Amino acid sequence: MDDNKFLRIVLPGIFAIAGLVGVQAYYLLKSWDLKDQEFDTTMHIILSKVANEIAKYNDTVLPKKNLIQRRSSNIYAVNVNSSIVPYVVEDFLYQEFTNASLTTDFEYAVFDCHSNELVYGNYCRFNEKDRPVYQASLPRFDEFTYYFVIKFPERESFLLSNLSFNLTFALLAILALFYFVYTSYEVARQKKLSKLQIEFINNMTHEFKTPVSSIKIAANALLNSKLVKSDEKLEKYVSIINDQNSRINNQVERVLSIASVEDDFLQLKKVDFDLVSVVEKIIDQENIKQGQALISMESCCDSLIINADEVHFTNVIFNLIDNSLKYNEKEPKITVNIDQDQIGKIILSIQDNGIGIAKEEQKNIFDKFYRVSTGDRHDVKGFGLGLFYIKNICEAHGWQISLQSEVREGTKISIII
CB 3.0 to 4.6 Å from 109: which of 123, 138, 232, 248, for a disulfide? Predict the structure, then answer.
């Protein structure tokens, strides 16, 4: 995936979640304002009732205007127009708060006109546990003569408790945004590291191509030399050099093929060719290389024309047969079967009598660099790239690939074309 495509996927997601967070924050603020207005209205109703109770108790008349004044978000003053006894105020407040089912803590003070001081009354909790130390921090209201002041120290906590549902969703939205951004950052970082890794492998393998080619030329020249041919031991050593150089070259080519698949540089050159004929040639070459007929073929017909990249198709078949030969503890017996179903799909399968693959390993068998665990044994060399390459080529063609295997019973890999 290129950088532009990645950004086209990630950025809309970030903006969408950020938009949801913004909407949630807007509605949270609106809910806060509504709850604050509701609290203020409830306080005016409760305090008006308390003022009326005090007026009845003192047999006085309340002022018609400016009965209740709000100094700040959580402080109110009530003008009762007569002297007040603190414990009477507290009783009336408790009574009206209980009637209104309001259980937020409050503290109050009563103005004493004789001493011209605000006398602190009490800190009142509906839950008697953990009673705090009394606080004398209530303001005076010089425009009133007889009044009491009430403060709600836990007003914000009270309002927040009524917004717990909204707050939960707002926090979840914020967490979702941070998680998405963090995940996108990690994906981008891993993508960058993966790109650096692929570039390193590409550069490394390309650097190997020159010395490998030079060694091949030198080895071929030595093999054709009369001096080397006359010395049996020297000829054997040169043959080993040539064989190992060919092996290195094959591994380099395989790594380059995988890199091209992974970098999305793979461009299939599809042509029409006879699948049966190509597979027969591959089998003949492998049997000649092994010195015996270890591979057989069964086909439903003599010719099947498909449209595919012949080079990559050939590599896929070579890789599958090579795996069947390598992963075998006895004399290999490999069968390549070509069949066709009623709707025209071609089923090409390669079955062997090898060591098989355990069930728990099969789900990862097509992953890059994955090799079946064999403990400390390393009988078969490789990078774990063969099946990864095969799967990518099949997917690029739109083919399906499946695997069936039992330990010590063999493996069957099928490609549906």
Answer: 138
